[in-house]
Amino acid sequence: MKRNQLYWTLQFGGWFTWALNEALLYTNQYGWKWAWLFSSLANITLAIFLTHQYRRISKHFHWQDLSLFRMLQWNTFALLFMALCLVGLNIPLDYTFLQESYDVSLSPFIVVQILFNFMKPLAIWQLIYFFFQYSNKKMEMEREQDRLERTIQDTEGKVLRAQMNPHFVFNALNSVRALITEDPQKAKKGINQLSKLLRSSLLTERQKTITLSEELDTVADYLALEKIRYEDRLTWKIDINPACAKAQIPPMMLQTLVENAIKHGISHAVKGGLITISAQIIDKHIQISVINPGQMKSESTQSIGVGVENSRSRLNLLFGETAQLSIRPLDKNHVEAMMILPYLETK
């Protein structure tokens, strides 16, 4: 049910129930009269009119946003005014319909008693109305906060990707530059490989995640580019569980880990070495490992580069604390980069 329909349903239903209760009390005390029907309809009509005007005024002047003291002031004034209007209607009705049953003496005590009698349902109406208003306002604030957080995350993600792409291009150009004087043919081949890599990067730039198989294609192109530079010093092995192929990961993230493995592992080893890339599913999480030759006393003593730091930030933005990225010594001669994130598959 729409909010407007719900409001009017509760308005008519609530005040009808109140008027019916009052009519039953009068009937029990003075006997049935058809005049009770007219009196009830008059009270329902006036009560709905008054509370609806109260709603319009409170929304127009934003009473909900006032300080507590000011809000109580205006609501108390509105409560008294609405109750006095109902008292002004019902005293003449009582004189008209009950004049044969009892003699009404309009003493101050009687008027105050009637006033408080009408203030009770009106006060309950105000409390229910402000409870719903407060709940709706809180939900709106939560939705707005969620939208703001998503906007911030999207912006931060774009900034991080914007930082990674120039970083990646710079390293790739360095690889090609080293070949220009040594072997122009290999340099030409490297430029072709770099062009292919840049095309893949542009295609995935606007995507938050891609499949692992798509990322592996980019990694294969990157390794082929670096193979031109390192020749036999660089070999690699890919051991991916077929069930991981459709898993979603951030684009260029695995490539960053491989790039880091070459920069801190292969390039420092005289004979080069083997880079092992593996992936498996454990407890509804995908674990992606990149192992390279090298030594690492502690992560704090070795720079892991802008790319890896950005990768950690991107994982936190996309998956929160459920995703992890760590780099640790596997043994005396190998270092492992491990990425763990929730297993999400393409539909």
Automatic annotation (TrEMBL):
Transmembrane segments: 34-51, 72-91, 111-132
Domain Signal transduction histidine kinase internal region: 156-234
Origin organism lineage: Bacteria, Pseudomonadati, Bacteroidota, Cytophagia, Cytophagales
Keyword set includes Transferase: yes
Keyword Isomerase: no
Coiled-coil stretches noted in the UniProt entry, renumbered to this chain: 134-165
Protein name: Histidine kinase
Keywords annotated in UniProt: Coiled coil, Kinase, Membrane, Transferase, Transmembrane, Transmembrane helix
PANTHER family cross-referenced by the UniProt entry: SENSOR HISTIDINE KINASE YPDA (PTHR34220:SF7)
GO molecular function, a single term: kinase activity
